[in-house]
Amino acid sequence: xxxxxxxxxxxxxxxxxxxxxxxxxxxxxxxxxxxxxxxxxxxxxxxxxxxxxxxxxxxxxxxxxxxxxxxxxxxxxxxxxxxxxxxxxxxxxxxxxxxxxxxxxxxxxxxxxxxxxxxxxxxxxxxxxxxxxxxxxxxxxxxxxxxxxxxxxxxxxxxxxxxxxxxxxxxxxxxxxxxxxxxxxxxxxxxxxxxxxxxxxxxxxxxxxxxxxxxxxxxxxxxxxxxxxxxxxxxxxxxxxxxxxxxxxxxxxxxxxxxxxxxxxxxxxxxxxxxxxxxxx
Length: 281
Ligand code: PAF
Prior knowledge:
- By secondary structure, this protein is an alpha/beta fold.
- It folds into two domains: 2-172, 3-Layer(aba) Sandwich (Rossmann fold), CATH 3.40.50.620; 185-273, Pantoate--beta-alanine Ligase, Chain: A,domain 2, CATH 3.30.1300.10.
- 39% of the residues lie in helices and 20% in strands.
- It is built from ten helices and nine strands.
- The protein has helices at residues 7-20, 34-46, 74-83, 94-97, 116-119, 123-138, 150-162, 192-198, 200-213, 218-231, and strands at 2-4, 23-28, 49-54, 88-90, 142-146, 168-172, 235-243, 257-265, 268-276.
- The strands form two sheets. Strands 1-4-3-2-5-6 form a six-stranded parallel beta sheet, sandwiched between helices.
- Bound molecules: pantoate.
- Residues 27-29, 57, 60, 127, 130-131, 149, 152 line the site of pantoate.
- Pantoate (PAF) is lined by residues 27-29, 57, 60, 127, 130-131, 149, 152.
């Protein structure tokens, strides 16, 4: 496994791989956990060369969203990449990425401003800007993303399509603790009792899914999820929504409904989602 720090180095390192076969990119902000491992494993099975990027992107954090406190630990991250047999780790400095806030930006309008985007203005613009840059640097054939970040995935898919990146996207299922809590780098902020409290996000989604499957309206499912989140001590709900999986607006009368929740637990803001299928459609 080769660890590279500059754009020139990553391009030079990938040149022979590019000639030999498909390149897969697993973009990350480090603090790797079993969810990231599942992306690395999926990539390892499918492509010839696996590239992991480790970069905590300042542009996707709002002023009070804890950029400096975000968990960092390159040694442990490199050990995970080595164990999962990555070929190249791209771990650039902030200077190398040279991302000055508000200068060159990439925005997917509409989708970036609703649900999670409403709660975190400019977050998705920061994500799109760094992802566009990473795609230009690595030029992968396949991009690996986790289902937990469902709205981010929809936005990146739109970015890839609209800017003709010619990369296919593989979304891997959310990896969960036995109690249902979705793995997230932000779980590192939580004590063991807070981790237990945080499992309520998944319980709320399961209850919302059951309601949708029983033909309740999206509004009824939202109310149920909101009540479950609000009843859990130590959890401050942000939103609990039932939306169309593509537009993230009100669901159509038939077909799947995407349930999305966000809540603050201790020092962490957590998100999760689940798809519910209605009997009709
Ligand atoms: O999902 C993440 O970890 C980040 O948003 C990403 C895609 C690596 C961009 O910084």
